[in-house]
């Protein structure tokens, strides 16, 4: 029997998916780093209107995968969905370089994203045999790929946009998307075989429909509702927090000034730095039988994010422009909380999916992100009508409410989920 070919202890296909996702995220976060600034500085939108557009766009980017996942599972297949979706997204990013195409470009990116986003992570599970202990950590490894792209994007796209013109930054995002597609095509031999969904059988013996176990469905619904609330606070990072970094933070270092978009690279950089020691800690806890249940781990993450916003509220209450180191400290705390909640939730949705509904179930995870992004856009409209300290306090309360909901899920009889559900 031929020994399995691995890279970094995992199947080689994980690296292909990792790199494909990295460049897709480069394109997404590169455009997102510029979006609010572009609307308020170039298109001269009011802050409230820009917040609503930002929230609607990010929401659509999470809503379209719900439909796209079903299309991939039933008709296109995952591979074709990624190729078509990625090509459409690349076109949308290049359209962003032209002001009259602003709204059509946003719609185009969201539509392509719908096919691409659920089909890529749903291929991770196909790389591992049932019971493979590496499967759980694979989603955290994959999440690092998200953040390498997110780290590079503000530095490259943001710098091009700020120094040479917004359209140069948007064009760089389109090139990143094409790079991701090229890697996916070149790495096909390392992925599990992708079969087109079977055509409907006209024979009278119709197979029984795939059904979710009731407990599994209730768990996923409870987690999704909690994450919806959580994202109302978390998604301010590219919205109102970006505006605060521009106007409320002293970004001077000697005679130089740190570009405002660079701070958006801190979160993904910290994900890469923090993920390995966190995984090692959780493995040790699991080995000693002290592993946290997934919902409890996610609740801890939401509380940590609440603490990050509470810190900003205190800094703002002290008065005067905040030193840029406070923004760095915020991202350190925020990222620690994020790593407890978002990869854990994605892993749950992917691993609890019934056979044949992988992309559809992962798409359902993005339904929570869709609703949360809409909520974040609405919450962001309060930025101009309240004190910044009061606004950050509100975000802390929202994150704390999500933590309470997750703890309730963990303690409710019949909804308990084990740490083994996330590996």
Automatic annotation (TrEMBL):
Membership in a protein family: Belongs to the major facilitator superfamily. Proton-dependent oligopeptide transporter (POT/PTR) (TC 2.A.17) family.
Signal peptide (UniProt feature, chain positions): none
Protein name, per record: Peptide MFS transporter
Topological relation to the membrane, as annotated: Multi-pass membrane protein
Listed transmembrane segments: 52-72, 102-120, 141-161, 167-186, 217-234, 262-282, 294-312, 324-350, 362-383, 389-408
Domain called Major facilitator superfamily (MFS) profile: residue spans: 13-413
Principal location: membrane
Annotated InterPro entries: Dipep/tripep_permease, MFS_dom, MFS_trans_sf, MFS_Transporters, POT_fam, PTR2_symporter_CS
Keyword annotations from UniProtKB, A to Z: Cell membrane, Membrane, Peptide transport, Protein transport, Transmembrane, Transmembrane helix, Transport
CDD domains to which the protein is assigned, alphabetical: MFS_DtpA_like (cd17346)
Domain of life: Bacteria
Species per Swiss-Prot/TrEMBL record: Sphingomonas hylomeconis
Localisation: Cell membrane; Membrane
PANTHER family according to UniProt: PROTON-DEPENDENT OLIGOPEPTIDE FAMILY TRANSPORT PROTEIN, RESISTANCE PROTEIN MDTM, PUTATIVE-RELATED-RELATED
